Amino acid sequence: MPRLSVCGIQFSFLVKTNYLALLCLLLSLTMAAQPISFTVSMDNPAAHYFRVVMQCHNLAGKTIDLKMPVWTPGYYQRLNFARNLDSFAVTGENGRALAWEKTDDNTWRVHSNDAATLTVAYIINTRRAFVATPFLDSTRGYISPAGVFLHPAGQLHQPVQVIIQPFRAWKNVATGLDTVAGKPFTYAASDYDMLYDCPILTGNLEELPPFTVSGIPHRFIAYNPGNFDKAQFTNDLKKIVKTASAIIGHIPYKQYTFIAIGPGAGGIEHANSTTISFNGAALHSPEGRLRLLNFIAHEYFHHYNVKRIRPIELGPFDYDNGNRTKMLWVSEGLTVYYEYLILKRAGIAAEEDLFRNIRSNITAFETKTGKLHQSLAEASYETWRDGPFGRTGDSVNKTISYYDKGPVVGMLFDFAIRHETNNQKSLDDVMRRLYREFYQQKKRGFTEEELREVVESTAGTKLDELFEYIYTTREINYRKYLAYAGLAMDSGYQLTRMQHPDALQASILKTWLGEK
Ligand SMILES: [Zn+2]
Question: What's the pTM value of the predicted model, to 2 decimals?
Answer without folding.
Answer: 0.93
